[in-house]
Amino acid sequence: MPFDVIAFEVGRIYFEMKFSPHLILLTLLASLPGLNATSSSPTSLPLRPTPVPSPYNHGRSHYVSPPRTKTCYVTALGGGKDDSAGILSAAKSCNNGGNIALLDAQYTISRPLDLTFLNAVDFIIEGQVSFTPDVNYWSTNSFQYKYQDTALFWQFGGQDVNIYGGGTLNGNGQAWWDAMASDSDVVRPILLGLMGLKGGSVSNLKMKNPPNWFNFVANSSDIIFDSMTLTSASNNSNPAHNSDGWDTYRSDAVTIQNSYVSNNDDCVSFKPNSTNILVQNMQCINSHGISVGSLGQYIGEVDIVENIYIYNASMTTSSDAARIKVWPGISPSSTSTSSGGGSGYVKNVTYNGMHDTSVNYAIELTQCYGQKDLTLCNQYPSSMIIEDILFENFSGTSKKYDPTVGTLVCSSPHVCKNIVAKNINITNPSGKTAKWTCKNVDNSTLSINCA
Ligand SMILES: *[C@@H]1O[C@H](CO)[C@@H](O)[C@H](O)[C@H]1NC(C)=O
Ligand SMILES: *[C@@H]1O[C@H](CO)[C@@H](O)[C@H](O)[C@H]1NC(C)=O
Ligand SMILES: *[C@@H]1O[C@H](CO)[C@@H](O)[C@H](O)[C@H]1NC(C)=O
Ligand SMILES: *[C@@H]1O[C@H](CO)[C@@H](O)[C@H](O)[C@H]1NC(C)=O
Ligand SMILES: *[C@@H]1O[C@H](CO)[C@@H](O)[C@H](O)[C@H]1NC(C)=O
Ligand SMILES: *[C@@H]1O[C@H](CO)[C@@H](O)[C@H](O)[C@H]1NC(C)=O
Ligand SMILES: *[C@@H]1O[C@H](CO)[C@@H](O)[C@H](O)[C@H]1NC(C)=O
Ligand SMILES: *[C@@H]1O[C@H](CO)[C@@H](O)[C@H](O)[C@H]1NC(C)=O
């Protein structure tokens, strides 16, 4: 029996074997993605990253995914044809322990994709997943939620899901920003939704130009985002809108780390009922800051944001670096249910190590959000308590309101407790002593110059 050394490539899989021609043929047939969608030897796939919260953690053990035992390859249809059905069927076939591999250069999603049934799967995205910029279609076909009228192209939920691979999610936001010029209420989908996911990681991906927020993490727990690159920029005079990097809502134990965000809204925003959230080693460019809130907007609702730790963030040309925004109370005669008056609390939030470059405010804490009339704010103080807040180790520069570098405004001294600022060194272009606006806040624990 003659033995040959044969090397050949099938798609992305490279074989070099020293076997009989019969065995080669069998191996080849079993490995061809088109002939057999599942394979038990995903050796050609990139290794799954195993991001863990570091250097800080939120005090819980992080979930661990078992290895995946099968792989479903999704072949891109190409030519702008919709790949959502292919992705859905791969997700069903390889659910409960498999990989869903998107290894082609370009996938298109033009139909809503509901992936909330997942259990123990990895999505490996090496190329670009692009969402069709059909503003009218998505306005009625995206997944829609009541909270802040959010809409989604696709949604991931279930348990134990990892998404990674070095690829790009492209929201093609320009079409929506252009549409907003004539209709500011146009439905604009969020680029990635984790909806009811318990245990998950999203890492080593690029995200660009979302019509709305980049990431919405809702009803989820034990999630880590690591090594993400988020960029949003308009090509014309219609600016990008609401391009928040991450919004957490009704979620617990979420880590966001080692990531770069260039946008023009919040870098990260902690919305109602965000608990045990850790954000560290971040670079945020042009953002509105790493923000708690806004909270307390709706009468009768109870909003809780608790145990938030932000460590080592560089904030460049941001409107704010550290930000806490809470609505005040509302006059009993008011008929509005959405301009303050909600209750709850913001408790145990630490910003440790913010490195600012030309920000407007290094710290903006307000309990008078949405109420320009300070007298009215003080007359009807917030029903949401802000307590146990620490701002420590801030350095860098502030520019716009020189010499004022930050502002801390509570609606009454009774509803803001234990607000501490330590080792804050923010300088101005003018070189004048930095000034801070402080209202209704105990300044004995603030080592800043309350002017
Ligand atoms: C703007 O144009 C550049 C270059 O053509 C492109 O890479 C980018 O995706 C465009 N941005 C938007 C929001 O469409
Ligand atoms: C979260 O879960 C609640 C309760 O099941 C549900 O009403 C809501 O639609 C879910 N998602 C969002 C974004 O609120
Ligand atoms: C802070 O974060 C940056 C990334 O933005 C990273 O390069 C640096 O090593 C981190 N520093 C510390 C002390 O963790
Ligand atoms: C947030 O938690 C509080 C306390 O458990 C609850 O009353 C409130 O309804 C929750 N809000 C949301 C939006 O889930
Ligand atoms: C405050 O939050 C931090 C970090 O999220 C956590 O480690 C700590 O235990 C919390 N403190 C209290 C008193 O709950
Ligand atoms: C701020 O930095 C100092 C000096 O590096 C360090 O001792 C302190 O623990 C830091 N603050 C926090 C909250 O970690
Ligand atoms: C504050 O920062 C400036 C500019 O980086 C530096 O020159 C100065 O020594 C710092 N002051 C303190 C007290 O650390
Ligand atoms: C704190 O507030 C008191 C009373 O308003 C004021 O006299 C004092 O100068 C302030 N201290 C600082 C450090 O800003």
Automatic annotation (TrEMBL):
Residues forming the catalytic site: 288
Residue segments, region Disordered: 39-63
PROSITE patterns per the UniProt record, alphabetical: POLYGALACTURONASE (PS00502)
Catalytic activity: [(1->4)-alpha-D-galacturonosyl](n) + H2O = alpha-D-galacturonate + [(1->4)-alpha-D-galacturonosyl](n-1)
Name of a matching Pfam family: Glyco_hydro_28
Cell location: Secreted
Annotated EC: 3.2.1.67
Gene Ontology MF terms in the entry: galacturan 1,4-alpha-galacturonidase activity; polygalacturonase activity
Top EC group: hydrolase
Keyword match Hydrolase: yes
Coiled coil: none
GO CC aspect terms: extracellular region
Domain of life: Eukaryota
Signal peptide span: 1-37
UniProt-listed GO biological process terms: carbohydrate metabolic process; cell wall organization
Keywords: Cell wall biogenesis/degradation, Disulfide bond, Glycoprotein, Glycosidase, Hydrolase, Repeat, Secreted, Signal
Chief place of localization: secreted
Family: Belongs to the glycosyl hydrolase 28 family.
Protein name: galacturonan 1,4-alpha-galacturonidase
Organism of origin: Cudoniella acicularis
